[in-house]
Amino acid sequence: MTTTAKPSLFVYYRVPHARKQAAAQAVWAMQAALSRQWPSLDAQLMRRADASAQNEAAEDTWMETYAHPEGVSAALMEAIAAQARALPDGLIGVRHVETFVPLGTPPATPTP
Q1: Residue 31's closest CA among 65, 59, 8, 60?
Q2: Rounded to an integer, what distance in angstroms lies between the CA atom of residue 89 and that of residue 104?
Q3: Whole-model pTM above 0.90?
Q4: Fewer Cβ atoms within 10 Å of its own Cβ: the N or the C terminal residue of the chain?
Q5: What is residue 108's DSSP assignment?
Q6: pLDDT digits over 65-80, tens only?
Q7: Measured at the alpha carbon of residue 61, what is the angle toward residues 18 and 7, in degrees to the nearest 5?
Q8: E-strand spans in the chain?
Q9: What pLDDT, on a 0 to 100 scale, did the predictor assign at position 24?
Q10: Distance CA 20, CA 45 (A)
């Protein structure tokens, strides 16, 4: 891995089914505000889609993803955290934040 790897941010948490509409609206608004502040930010909101997730009785697992052509900087990470702290209490569960960097490109496969 090189020092030029550009990190992306992944945030996952649980959302009570009863709050999912309000949570989606709040997170989308948060991501829109971040995208205005950080041009070229690629922010997405996803829901776990496997069969067991669909059968959970009380909550879904959601993930926010953040990528930027220049990488997700410490300043951008703090802006995301600050926006998340402003979300209404109890709307989403505890946020688990992880940062990943690309491994690079696979080596070329020789042609026969």
Answers
A1: 65
A2: 39
A3: no
A4: C
A5: P
A6: 999 999 999 999 999 9
A7: 135
A8: 8-16, 42-47, 59-67, 96-100
A9: 97
A10: 12
Q: How far apart are CA 68 and CA 31, in angstroms?
A: 13
- pLDDT mean over 6-31: 95
How buried is residue 25: exposed, middle or buried, by Cβ count under 10 Å (0-12/13-18/19+)?
A: exposed
Domain boundary assignment for the chain: 8-100
pLDDT at 1: 41
d(CA 53, CA 57): 9
Q: Which CATH class is domain 8-100?
A: alpha beta
Whether residue 110 is predicted with pLDDT greater than 80 in this model: the reply is no
pLDDT digits (tens, 9 = 90+) for 38-47: 999 999 999 9
The token duo for 73 is: 């900087």
| Helix, coil or strand: residue 95 | coil
> Between residues 54 and 77, which one has the greater pLDDT?
77
First to last CA, the chain: 29
